[in-house]
Design brief:
The protein has 92 residues and is an alpha+beta fold. The chain contains 3 helices and 5 strands. Helix 1 (3-14) packs across helix 2 (18-37). The radius of gyration is 19 Å and the shape is elongated.
Length: 92
């Protein structure tokens, strides 16, 4: 499903126009992005939670140069599905 189909389904169920739904979706995504960017967890009941996790620096072996190299620490996005979502996927 893409954004357009999602917006159409939301508009059909709520009676809002596509422009209103698109604006609402953009506002939700902006708010969620800002929260996760500030290292806060965003939890959507029935769907799951999004959080920022730090991956520590580590050393890797480069087989081309046959040397050890350090990969710097970085942040990555993590998603944990809610139990309701896991159950729905399991039973589908």
């Amino acid at each position: 499903m893409n954004n357009r189909k999602l917006n159409e389904q939301i508009a059909k169920k709520t009676g809002l126009t596509l422009n209103e739904v698109a604006a609402l979706q953009a506002a939700c995504i902006d708010a969620m992005t800002a929260e996760v960017g500030d290292a806060n967890t965003v939890t959507l009941t029935g769907i799951g939670s999004f959080e920022l996790k730090e991956k520590p620096a580590r050393k890797i072996f480069n087989p081309n140069t046959k040397t050890m190299q350090e990969v710097p620490a970085r942040y990555t996005m993590a998603f944990r599905p809610a139990s309701q979502l896991k159950e729905k996927v399991k039973n589908s």
